């Protein structure tokens, strides 16, 4: 099963206007009816109609045929009720699963991105609001709330399926070759087109802090560790002291992770801790860490950390830039890429981009590679994330234009999707036997 995109295309928002015009205006405002009940949760008819508006808009955007009469609309509505029941079953299970977590920040960020994407398709705020109203989606605030609810439910179900797949709880049936080809033929028109891609290799050089800067960071870590041993709250300390901008505001929360997700030095310590235990100071290429494990499940754990990153001076950056210049010069002179990679590349950075969409690369890479030719040595490029600066020297290998994917290119993706779908269908069948369901339409 896959989540549907919530954003609407230009013109699709107005789709329901002629549909609603086919019916006379009611003489009264009806009370919202219940379309179905799942467990003790009702699914109101208004929610089904919201999904209907979105489904019709998506069909129009994709160029698929629309229902031509009331019978066709009714059939689509029944199909959507089944989908909503299945979604509700999964959402309820996700909320019972203690390893499934979706933060308000995740929901808000995704909903705002969808809202901005939709708004950008209209030249004026007035036209945007008018089309929302014509589509039966209310005001921008009402539309934002609807998007937020959809995003939260989608993230809950996706995370549940991911967790169950990782634990081996979904009994998947691998598809046959015939099933793969049938799916390909019937959905070929709906498959995404292959974007224009580039292939490149890079050597990334990271400025190295001085021994004195490392000693200062280590002393900070030791000091905070003493406070934690004396009873200080770990999350509060992370908000005060951590140099990890991505987790600091959340009290150092790293969420759930399995082995292979973090650097080796970090994982070796984290997976030996007991819930509530705080580690000694752990050194990694990022700096010095304090780790607290909160919960443990088979093969994965939930943890927080505090990072103490050694300060990098202007002279450290200048030395790294000079080294990057020499690496670029050596490559242009014909030196071995593999040899230079082994000697100078930061192991925390990706070295190979193989047939990657140009738009998926960092902004600096996009600008530099847009006009490059195969075989060219590009850079050094300055890569920055906040105060973190690195220098990349790139060997540009290949460029491929946009085009249609072949069956062989999508074979593995289709196999994975059909296998997962089979596991989800079997799981839904089990849930239907255990959960009360009452369809009232």
Query: What proportion of the residues form beta strands (DSSP E)?
Result: 15-25%
Mean pLDDT: 82
Category by helix and strand content: alpha+beta
Order of helices and strands: HEEHHHHHHEHHEHEEEHHEHEEHE
Report the total helices.
14
The rough form would be described as globular
Distance between the termini: 24 Å
Strand order of the largest sheet: 8-3-10-9
CATH fold node name of the largest domain: Triger factor/SurA peptide-binding fold
Which CATH C-level class of the largest domain is it?
A: Mainly Alpha
Biggest sheet character = 4 strands, antiparallel
Radius of gyration: 27 Å
Structure characterization notes:
The chain has 441 residues and is an alpha+beta fold. It has three domains: 12-185 and 418-439, Porin chaperone SurA, peptide-binding domain (Triger factor/SurA peptide-binding fold); 197-208 and 313-400, Chitinase A, domain 3; 211-308, Chitinase A, domain 3. Helix content is 48%, strand content 18%. It has 14 helices and eleven strands. It has helices at 16-21, 45-62, 70-96, 104-119, 125-134, 140-167, 177-187, 211-229, 234-241, 264-270, 314-332, 337-344, 363-369, 407-434; strands at 34-38, 41-44, 197-205, 253-258, 282-284, 287-297, 300-308, 352-357, 377-385, 388-400, 437-439. The strands form three sheets. Strands 8-3-10-9 form a four-stranded antiparallel β-sheet, with helices on both faces. A four-stranded antiparallel β-sheet has the order 4-7-6-5, with helices on both faces. α2 (45-62) packs across α3 (70-96) and α3 crosses α6 (140-167). The longest helix has 28 residues, at 140-167. The two termini are 24 Å apart. The model is unreliable at 1-30 (pLDDT under 50).
